[in-house]
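Supplementary Methods S3. Input chains for the assembly prediction are listed below.
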Amino acid sequence: MEKKNQTKQLRSAITLLLLLLLTLIGESQGIWLSIPTSGTKCVSEEIQSNVVVLADYYVVADEVDHHHQIHTVSLKVTSPYGNNLHQKENVTHGQFAFTSAESGTYLACFWLQNKHEQPVTVSLDWRTGISAKDWETVAKKEKIEGVQLELRKLEAAVEAIRENLIYMKHRESDMREVSEATNARVAWFSIMSLGVCILVGALQLWHLKRYFRKKKLI
Amino acid sequence: MEQTQWKRSSKMWMVLACLMMSFFSSIESLSVTVNDVECVYEYVLYEGDTVSGNFVVVDHDIFWGSDHPGIDFTVTSPAGNTVNNIKGTSGDKFQFKAPTHGMYKFCFHNPHSTPETVSFYIHVGHIPSEHDLAKDEHLDPINVKIAELREALESVTAEQKYLKARDARHRHTNESTRKRVVFYTVGEYLLLAGVSALQVIYIRRLFSKSVAYNRV
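Predicted C-alpha cells for the full assembly:
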C-alpha cells in the first residue's frame, strides 16, 4: 500500500517537473540573432522614460559543431545619452534589467571577441513594460491563480494599450506643432526671399548708377 | 482525508498554472540596422499558430523620395519554403498560419548600399484548439476564450507598435523638412547676395579704365 502511494507520488512529481521544464523552454524563447565573425550586431528600441526593461540572452549551441567549442559572445547595452548600462565580455548567457531613465533609443550590441570561423547564434529575449512584469510575485502577493491571474494579465494589457494611446496622442500633438511651424516658416521664408531679391536688385542698380555717375559716363 | 484533498487540488492548480504559462506567446519588438541582409529567427511552438507582425523602415537619409526602392521581406519556414514575400516596401504588416512548428527565419534585404534601420515586431499566438481540449482534461473551454481574448488584445498592441514605428518615421521626415527649410533658405539668400555682388564687380570691371578705352 505504501509502495503504491510512493510510486504514485514519484510519477506525479516527474510529470510536474516535465511540465515545468516545458513551460521554462516555452518562456525562455526569444528572437535568435546571428552574430557575424567580424563586426558588431546591434538591436535597438525606442523606449520612453520610466519603463522596465528585462532581457535574457544565451548562446545557442550549434549542432553541427565538430570542435565542440564553447562559443562566447560579448555585449554592451547603452542608453540614449551614451551611458553604459550593462557590459559583459566572453559570456555564454546572462541577463540584465534596468528602468529607463530617459526616453530615447536604447542599444544592445553583440560582437565576437575571440576568432570564430562561423557566426554565432544568440537568443535574445527582450521584454519592455508590461511584458517584463513579474506575474509570479503578483500572484503570490494578491493570492490569485489560474483564470483569475489570466484575467489580471489581460487587464494589465488593456491598461498598457490605453497608456500607449495617450502617449501617441502627445507625440501627435508635438509633431503637429513642428509641422505647423515648418509650414509658417516656408511661407515666411519664400516671401522674404522675394524681398531679398528685390532688395539686392535695387542695391545693384543704386550702386551701378552711383559708379557710372562718378565715372562721368551718365 | 482533508489534507490529501487539498494536496490534490493544489497540484491540479499548479498543473493548470503551468499549462497556462505554456500558452504564453512570445512578443518581440526591436529595431535592427540592415546593411545587406539581416535575418531574425523566431521559434514557433505549435503547428497552426498564427504568426503576425509588422515592420517599418524608420531611418532614411534619402534625398529624393523616389530614390530608395524600399526593402524586401522574406519569411522562410523550417522546411525551407518561403512562406511570405514582400518586395520593395517601406513598411508593411504580415500574418500567416504556421504550417509546421520549428524555427522560422524572417529576413530583410536591402538592395541599396545605404544602411537602413528597420523596426519590426513579431508575435506568435496560440489558441488551444478542440484537439487540445480533448487531449487535456485540465483545460476548460474558458481557457480557449481567454486565449482568444488575449490574441485580440495582442493584435491591438501590434497595431499600436506599427503606428508608433510609422510615427517615428514621420517624425524623422518632419525634422528633416524643418532642417532643410532653414538651411536651404539661408543658403539661397547668401547665394543670391553673392551672385549679385559678382555681377556688380563684373560690370565695374567692364567699365574700368584699362579695358574701357579698348572695348566700350
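The beta strands of chain B are 27-34, 37-44, 50-59, 71-76, 82-89, 91-97, 102-109, 116-125. Confidence is low (pLDDT under 50) at residues 12-24 of chain B.
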